[in-house]
Amino acid sequence: MSSFLGNAYPWLKAFHLISVIAWMAALLYLPRLYYYHQRETAAGRNIHELFTTMEARLLRIIGTPAMLATWVFGILLVSVPGLIAWGDVWPWVKFGGVLAMTWFHFWLAGRRRELEREECLVTPKAFKLLNEVPSVLIILIVIMVVTKPF
């Protein structure tokens, strides 16, 4: 198995990166959709159904499958013998960032359900600020993987 993983490493890495990019696209766009959803609904515009459909499809068709693929390819990558020095700090910081990103994904999914029921208490301004969470996390994760600072 380790021989297979070693030989498949470039492909695993490529598919992992593709998955991460798709997941980040969804996580960066979803809070912005929520911002507009809340803002336009508060302004009395009747476009709730349009936003609900867009948000659900983004999560179901792109976001969640990309998150799952990211995890699968990531687990396969860290299974390649000798690839990660588990005694270092950086892989654990990266793992913490990935866990935070996954938690944020599920938190956004919960807000989508609240928006659909028109019960979401998060303000448009808060969604606009929350839009930065994936950016900060991906910066942390990429720096850990590329520079391995500790």
Task: Tell me about this structure.
The chain is mostly helical and 150 residues long. The protein is 81% helix and 0% strand. It contains 5 helices and no strands. It has helices at 2-42, 48-78, 90-116, 124-130, 133-147. Helix 1 packs antiparallel against helix 2 (48-78) and helix 2 runs antiparallel to helix 3. The longest helix is centred in the N-terminal third of the chain and has 41 residues, at 2-42. The two termini are 29 Å apart. The model has no long low-confidence stretch (mean pLDDT 94).
Short characterization:
It is built from five helices and no strands. It has helices at 2-42, 48-78, 90-116, 124-130, 133-147.
Rounded mean pLDDT score: 94
Shape: elongated
Mind describing the biggest β-sheet?
none
Number of helices: 5
Q: Estimate the helix proportion, in percent.
A: over 70%
How would you spell out the order of helices and strands? HHHHH
The computed structural class is mainly alpha
Poorly predicted spans: none
N- to C-terminal separation? Answer: 29 Å
Give the strand tally.
0
Beta-strand portion reads: under 5%
Radius of gyration in whole Å, from Cα? 18 Å
